[in-house]
Specification:
The complex is a heterodimer. Chain A is built from two helices and eleven strands. Helix content of chain A is 30%, strand content 39%. In chain B, the strands form two sheets. Chain B has a five-stranded antiparallel sheet with strand order 3-2-1-8-9, with no helix packed on it. Chain B has a four-stranded antiparallel sheet with strand order 6-5-4-7. Classes of the chains: A alpha+beta, B alpha+beta.
Chain lengths: 200, 311
């Protein structure tokens, strides 16, 4: 009887020792998994804001607007103020997949009345020595800078073929949901390729 | 999972404080210093008691007794009281070992329960995060565009558009054939994006209503209207299962249409329902003859266009 109690105690102690020895590594694995999932969620929710705009005046058939280009750190790069025919304002972006994430280059502004081919080209407005400044950040590496400059050069050349790319236009809808004069709107680019306009 | 967590918490509620106390006393310098001080205090009390007892005996044994305790006796008491507990422990070694093993078991059991609790909690968090990733990473096919012909003489593109109305991603019966001037084709839609918090819970889906096609040479206002409706004029977005629209259990078309209209025009209601943005969104590309392109709505917001073979 005493022997069996002793064996029982020794067994329990051994079991506890093994369990408490193995568990920390299981918990570490779980924590790594949690960290990884949190990173995936952060990446999915990651967004950039290259353009902020304001409608300065709107009459039937014309839109006056002010557009500000921002870099990744939110610093102002350039501002334009223009007037264009139409009732709906279209912001056209060139989206390209780079390292499993989409990045978007502001391409054109046109309207429901002006075809894209006659739209206002935006690319030179954020071009600095061949680098697209909307992607500039203090943390950017020289390697990324060179790759983005290279991609920008290809995008500007219509004869160049770029894989996994598409254009994406965001706009208001006349009579349904229009941009209001005096309001500021920001354009959000998602890493999964979607583009959104959000009232600031 | 919830139940097992509660059971573990209930079992450990009294073990954990005792275990924490033991670990503190044995495993930390402060704890060990406290134990040493307690032992010294115990030793001091015992030693003083021995001296006082000896003094009392000295006084009581003779009418001339002064209660004087010789130095040798003091030394004897000092070492006797210092080592007596240790000798007692050696004498009662089985009991002492039993106490140590019991306390060790208590700490071990508590630690095992804490580990199991942490494991269960981590597992729960992993499941929750996994669900969030799954919801945010989802996309729904809106339409497939087959490029029938690119006519470089007349500068037109012929398309066959197939719409996808439900989350099962099966195409609708209605196909639409379009011939449009130009080669860079814009597929325009109204897009209603919900907040991440609403999306990640899985009870809402971003909504899309395709409504026109235009091109680099055809202005949007002159674009071709899309037939994104079924035979009963119901937008295909509502051909989804009721539970998959955005958590509403609306049974009939009118209720659904009213709700969608309300989401678009009633800003307070839209905000309450978790709408982040409502916009026009056209995806476009210079399409190649014979290729099929799919248009997807991303749960993180916005439309994307991809060549069908990429998926």
């Amino acid at each position: 009887m005493k022997k069996s109690i002793l064996f029982g105690i020794v067994g329990i102690v051994a079991l506890l020792l093994v369990f408490n020895y193995l568990m920390p590594s299981c918990l570490r694995n779980q924590e790594d998994k949690i960290l990884n999932l949190e990173n995936v969620i952060d990446n999915l929710k990651e967004e950039s804001n290259p353009i902020v705009f304001k409608i300065t005046e709107k009459t039937e058939g014309t839109i006056s607007y002010k557009v500000m280009f921002l870099d990744e750190d939110g610093n102002k790069i350039n501002t334009i103020e223009e007037k264009i025919d139409g009732n709906e304002l279209f912001f056209d972006f060139f989206s390209v997949k780079v390292n499993d994430k989409y990045i978007a280059f502001p391409d054109k502004i046109f309207t429901d009345a002006v075809p894209a081919a006659n739209g206002n080209d935006l690319k030179e407005l954020y071009n600095k020595d061949g680098f697209p400044m909307v992607f500039y950040s203090e943390k950017i590496t020289d390697e990324s800078k060179a790759a983005l400059s290279d991609l920008f050069t290809k995008i500007k050349d219509p004869n160049q073929e770029i894989k996994e790319q598409f254009g994406s236009v965001v706009h208001d809808m006349h009579g349904i949901k229009s941009f209001e004069p005096g309001y500021t709107y920001k354009i959000i680019v998602h890493t999964k390729g979607g583009i959104e306009i959000i009232e600031d | 999972m919830e139940n097992s967590l509660e059971i573990l918490q209930q079992i450990n509620w009294f073990l954990k404080p005792v275990s924490d106390f033991l670990i503190f006393m044995v495993g930390t310098t402060v704890g060990r210093v406290i134990m040493l001080l307690l032992f010294l205090f115990y030793f001091f009390i015992t030693y003083m008691h021995s001296i006082n007892q000896r003094k009392a005996l000295g006084k009581g044994s003779s009418s001339y007794g002064t209660g004087f305790v010789p130095f040798q006796t003091k030394i004897y008491f000092f070492f006797r009281d210092l080592f007596a507990p240790l000798l007692k422990m050696i004498v009662h070694l089985p009991v002492v070992l039993g106490v140590i093993v019991t306390l060790g078991l208590l700490v071990g059991v508590s630690s095992a329960l804490q580990n199991m609790q942490a494991f269960a909690e981590n597992q729960k968090e992993i499941e929750q995060l996994g669900t969030i990733v799954k919801q945010l990473d989802k996309r729904y096919k809106v339409a497939s565009i087959k490029v029938e012909k690119t006519d470089y003489v007349n500068k037109t593109t012929s398309l066959e558009i197939e719409y996808f109305g439900n989350s099962l991603q099966s195409p609708s019966e209605n196909k639409q054939n379009i011939i449009i001037q130009g080669f860079d084709i814009y597929f325009d839609a109204m897009v209603l994006n919900f907040e991440y918090s609403a999306i990640q819970d899985g009870d809402k889906h971003n909504l899309v209503l395709p409504y026109r096609i235009f091109s680099e040479v055809v202005a949007a206002k002159d674009g071709i209207k899309l037939n994104y409706f079924d035979n009963d004029s119901i937008p295909l977005i509502y051909k989804r299962e009721a539970s998959e629209i955005y958590g509403l259990s609306a049974e009939d078309y009118n209720a659904r249409m009213d709700d969608f209209t309300r989401l678009i025009f009633d800003e307070d209601y839209a905000r309450k329902m978790g709408v982040r943005s409502f916009q026009g969104n056209a995806v476009h590309k210079r399409l190649a003859e014979g290729k099929i392109y799919d248009i997807w709505i991303e749960q993180t917001g916005g439309l994307v266009l991809k060549q069908a073979t990429l998926f």
